[in-house]
Specification:
Blueprint: E1 2-6, H1 13-24, E2 28-30, H2 31-40, H3 44-54, H4 61-72, E3 81-84, H5 90-103, E4 109-114, H6 117-126, E5 127-130, E6 136-138, E7 157-158, H7 165-188, E8 192-196, H8 201-216, E9 226-227, E10 231-234, H9 242-350
Parallel strand pairs: 1-3, 1-4, 2-3, 4-8
Antiparallel strand pairs: 5-6, 5-7, 8-10, 9-10
Helix pairs in contact: 1-8, 2-3, 6-7
This protein binds adenosine monophosphate.
């Protein structure tokens, strides 16, 4: 079984992961634990990671992915694993899928342990861990019998360095911002299962087991298991298990897009039909619409012609001016003609004759 365990800091991932280790005999791989070990051993990687961890920020993808790649290559991880605290962002989730694809070991499911913010705050501030055996207690919900002493080995109980309120607030904000897209990523690919992580640990554990059993049986879905204390498992789509199941999962994952494609195809066809149906009337309307403006143009043309005629009519008087000019010249001639006889008449009255002067002989 290859499982990614998702949940905010304090959601109980670590506690549940330990129980799954016993049940499935597969290792729990916690990036937080690996990083803390590197910090404690003061390795170069640990030194690089420390500042980000102390501030409640995520350590760089490069460091974490390198660490995970190495860990997944170890022999105990070949039968399966429970990834705890990884992936923490979308890029890590995609890289993990790539890594597992290369190894031919696809993920079976991503299990989200869902817990309210207020509960998370109380759990994180009250969390105490045994320095010797790693047993986890909570001063509010799961206190040790003796203060600061482990019930199991008597070791010292310590509060984790990043379990102070300021860092906790930061870690929760970082989780909200960066890990929510991871949850969506697994939901979209049909690999997400959700369990409500509030109530008795054993109830939550049972709910998780029901989910994993359903996945192991290759069931497409399983009924939600609501135990006492509101430990309810909400089972979504069945994830794939191994290559065969992956082959089964792929068509399932493709079904949605196929259905979408069909609806999209129908819409397209409908869209095509509609315009086609519209086109015909539109085609009829268009010529009509064109005719109308054309019909309108004619009056305009008529108007133009009328205007031209008017203009021409106005010009005609101008053309008549020429006859006027002719009239003027003819009038002049007439007056000249009238004047000439008048002169002749005066000359005749005076007895003046026009004679060619005689030359002396
Ligand atoms: P955890 O024990 O999972 O709460 O992790 C403790 C701290 O280790 C986180 O606050 C981060 O600083 C760092 N860390 C753990 N896992 C990752 C991861 N997958 N990516 C980046 N940083 C991580």
């Amino acid at each position: 079984m290859r499982i990614v365990l998702l949940g905010a800091p304090g959601s109980g991932k670590g506690t549940q992961a330990k129980q799954l280790v016993d049940q499935y005999h597969i290792p729990q791989i916690s990036t937080g634990d690996l990083l803390r070990a590197a910090v404690a051993a003061d390795t170069p990687l640990g030194r690089m990671a420390k500042a980000a961890m102390d501030a409640g920020q995520l350590v760089s993808d490069e460091i974490v992915l390198g660490m995970i790649r190495e860990r997944l290559a170890e022999s105990d991880a070949q039968r399966g694993f429970i990834l705890d605290g990884f992936p923490r962002n979308l890029s890590q989730a995609e890289s993990l899928d790539g890594m597992l694809q290369d190894l031919g070991q696809p993920l079976d499911l991503a299990l989200l342990i869902d817990v309210d913010f207020d509960v998370l705050m109380q759990r994180l501030t009250g969390r105490r861990t045994c320095e010797s055996c790693g047993a986890v207690y909570n001063v509010y919900s799961n206190p040790p019998k003796f203060d600061d002493r482990c019930d199991l080995c008597g070791g010292n109980l310590r509060r984790r360095a990043d379990d102070n309120e300021e860092t906790i607030g930061n870690r929760l904000r970082v989780y909200e911002a960066q890990t929510t897209p991871v949850v969506d990523y697994y939901r979209r690919s049909g690999r997400l299962r959700t369990v409500q992580g509030v109530g008795e640990i054993s109830d939550i554990q049972r709910a998780i087991r029901r989910i994993l059993d359903a996945v192991g049986r290759g069931e497409a879905s399983a009924p939600a298991g609501a135990g006492e204390g509101a430990a309810a498992a909400v089972v979504a789509r069945r994830p794939a298990g191994g290559e065969e199941a992956t082959a089964r999962k792929k068509p399932a994952a493709k079904k949605k897009p196929a259905a979408k494609k069909k609806t999209a195809a129908k819409k397209k066809a409908a869209a095509k039909k509609k315009p086609a149906a519209k086109k015909k009337p539109a085609a009829k309307k268009k010529p009509a619409a064109k005719k109308k403006p054309a019909a309108k143009k004619k009056p305009a043309a008529k108007k133009k012609a009328a205007a031209k005629k008017k203009a021409a009519a106005k010009k005609k008087p101008a053309a008549k001016k020429k006859p006027l000019a002719k009239k003027k010249s003819s009038a002049r001639k007439k007056s000249a003609a009238k004047k000439a006889p008048a002169r002749r008449k005066t000359a005749a009255k005076k007895g003046v004759r026009r004679r060619t002067p005689r030359r002396p002989k």
